[in-house]
Design a protein that fits this description.
- The protein is mainly alpha-helical.
- It folds into three domains: 138 residues, no CATH class; 286 residues, no CATH class; 56 residues, no CATH class.
- It has 17 helices and no strands.
């Protein structure tokens, strides 16, 4: 929509918006560039004039915007002449000064032709960049070059590889597509990268457990191993280290919920009561251990070394493991049924459970209900807790890490109990249906088959079959008809 097509009131509103944003930009510009050098072009008066002038020039000839282009060229020539003749050492030679003037000139037509949010967003972004000049320059000292390379790898994963992978399955062994596989890689890498950045650059006073919590977001198993080794170094059971191990596992349940919700909201909501309860219980155990710290003990180091999670080879290894688990799970489901999948979930708990959990959430295990998938996830997480208890004792020593190991085992037992709560109603329903079906088949054999052969059904057999049919949930009407026939 061109400015000439706007209604008068809307046109006035757009011009007022352009004027106000130009004033806003001019204030920020003067705060940074005109405190010491008042000769710098631009400011709280110049920018509104540029915005209004460009809007008027655009309205004169909106079809090809020739008048606007002429004004833009005139402004560019003037800025070039000014910067060319600027005195040596003047701050006016900064490229930000002509760029700010050109941006102020563009505000007018953009406010007339584009949605208001666009010109507001651009203006606010410019003001933030102007006002945070010193802070942004200090980032050069704070952020090392390796972090920039890490951010570049992250952009490669999500911005280059993900859009290029195909959306169609490439094998009949699994229903997942390469896009689903790489999406799982991106999801795990994103959570790990956020945790990595928080571990490395965020420090909170009076939050000694924060490193262990962030470690749990990254990898509860790695956090357990690191803190267990510190238990061995100290040579005695430290309540703070035990609390760190337990809270890392408690945070694992939150991480699982978030990962599942990214791919299957229904499954995440179904698991929410169990995962939330396990998290709360684990957090309670960690808080109890933390309160046991003796006053004479100095706070132990609960930090976990922040390792860059965005190594491209590591991402491809994760993708390969994900594909293997997807294929094996599908084969076990077809060959051994639901029981085989649950046994596999228990076995996978000794390793990284993320590929199995994400594969389940994405629908890689066909033929299983949401209840069975929830059961499998809880079994995998509980089995992983048992593995971490073993790691704690192995790396920290039996005496130093005994309490942490027992608490992890308690969380595992509670997880298995939660899995049983999910699976038992389903199993009972399945058994009931099977029993009812068998009783119904027996009743039909006793009543219908003799009639088809021209024989009279046996009276006692009919009554027994009808009673069994009703007890197992069969249809009462059919049973009553059979009883009447038996009484004749």
């Amino acid at each position: 929509m061109t400015g000439a097509e706007l209604a008068p009131l809307e046109l006035a509103g757009r011009l007022a918006l352009a004027f106000g944003l130009a004033v806003f930009l001019g204030l920020a510009f003067e705060e940074v560039y005109k405190r010491e050098d008042r000769s710098s072009p631009g400011g709280v008066r110049t920018f509104p004039m540029l915005a209004v002038s460009s809007a008027m020039l655009y309205l004169i000839e909106p079809q090809h915007a020739l008048a606007f282009i002429a004004g833009l060229l005139a402004l560019a020539l003037w800025l070039h002449a000014y910067l060319h003749n600027a005195p040596p050492g003047s701050k006016s030679t900064s490229l930000m000064i002509p760029v700010s003037n050109l941006l102020a000139y563009l505000i007018g037509p953009v406010a007339l032709t584009q949605p208001p949010w666009m010109v507001v967003a651009v203006s606010v972004t410019a003001v933030i960049l102007l006002g945070t000049r010193e802070q942004l320059h200090r980032l050069i000292e704070v952020v090392p070059q390796d972090e920039l390379l890490t951010a570049g790898k992250f952009l490669i994963l999500i911005g280059i590889i993900l859009p290029l992978v195909p959306h169609q399955p490439i094998t009949a062994a699994t229903t997942l597509t390469p896009y689903h596989v790489w999406l799982a890689v991106v999801a795990v890498c994103t959570l790990s990268y956020m945790s990595y950045l928080l571990q490395k650059y965020v420090s909170a006073p009076n939050a000694a457990l924060l490193p262990a919590i962030l470690g749990g977001l990254y990898s509860s198993t790695a956090t357990t191993v690191v803190l267990a080794k510190r238990q061995r170094e100290v040579g005695l059971a430290r309540s703070d280290l035990t609390a760190g191990i337990v809270v890392a596992t408690a945070v694992m349940y939150v991480r699982l919920g978030v990962v599942i919700a990214l791919f299957n909201v229904h499954l995440a909501l179904l698991l929410a009561p169990a995962l939330g309860s396990l998290f709360a219980f684990g957090a309670g155990l960690a808080a109890y251990e933390w309160r046991r710290i003796e006053g004479r003990q100095h706070a132990a180091d609960l930090s976990v070394p922040a390792v860059n999670p965005l190594q491209i080879p590591t991402a491809f290894i994760f993708a390969s493991i994900f594909v293997v688990i997807s294929v094996v799970t599908a084969w076990i489901r077809v060959t051994f049924g639901q029981t085989g999948v649950l046994i596999m979930a228990a076995a996978i708990g000794a390793t990284d459970i993320d590929p199995f959990v994400i594969n389940s959430a994405q629908g890689g295990v066909t033929g299983l209900s949401a209840t069975m998938l929830s059961t499998a996830v809880l079994i995998a997480a509980s089995s992983n807790n048992i593995a971490k208890a073993i790691y704690a004792v192995a790396f920290g020593g039996a005496e130093s890490s005994r309490r942490a190991a027992w608490m992890l085992v308690v969380l595992a037992i509670l997880g298995f109990a939660a899995a049983a709560v999910y699976i038992l109603p389903s199993a009972q329903f399945s058994i009931s249906n099977r029993t009812s079906s068998l009783a119904s088949s027996h009743l039909k054999d006793a009543y219908v088959k003799p009639l088809n052969k021209g024989l009279k059904p046996d009276r006692l057999t009919l009554i027994e079959a009808a009673n069994t049919h009703v007890k197992t949930g069969g249809h009462h009407g059919f049973s009553q008809e059979v009883r009447r026939e038996a009484g004749r």
